[in-house]
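Continuing the series of single-chain predictions for the mutant panel. This is the parent chain; the variants come on the following pages.
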Amino acid sequence: MNKSLITNLLAALLVVCGYLFQHAILFSIGLFALSGAVTNWLAIHMLFEKVPGLYGSGVVPARFEEFKAGIAHLMMEQFFTNENIDKFLSQQGGSVAHINLEPVIEKVDMSPAFDALVATVEQSSFGGMLAMFGGTEAIAPLKEPFINKMKTSLVELSQSDDFYELLKNEIEQPDVLADLRAKVKSIVDQRLAELTPQLVKEIVQEMIKQHLGWLVVWGGVFGGLIGLLAALLD
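Parent structure:
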């Protein structure tokens, strides 16, 4: 239901009826109601559309960059503050649900770790002894068990309370928080850069259209009351 259209039509109907039936009070009520409703409707329209000859119209598209900057400021200064991030981390500290790093660890290539271990053995006093038993080829079958054992140990370590507490304490350091906020700001700015004036207009218009419609309704109501009072005092 379009409240604005219905209000304007009712006010216009009162004007026509008052004029046709030569009813001064009805005509005055309708005229003032139509005036109030149309004025408010035009004001709402001017928020989103540029009207030729009307200075100040098209406020939302004209203030597009300021609108984006306001969103960015709101996100960073109200939601992603150091205090809010610190509060979130503190609340997480009391939870049994830790950060799950197992999927990440499973994807990590542990081959360089095994190669480094082999190189260390070769360069140590055991290198000569290893050469007697076939060199590095002799321990090649240990590569797969070594990698599996390393991944299992890392998963168990990442799920321990001590590791989580250490990670939380490191994240809560001021320089880390600042870096985290910088990355969040970069993401916010990147998303806002994707906005266009038309999209911003549609977003704002959709959010407040329902509520602004009542301005037209009340403009017609109060305009009609003023018209009634003017007719009675005439």
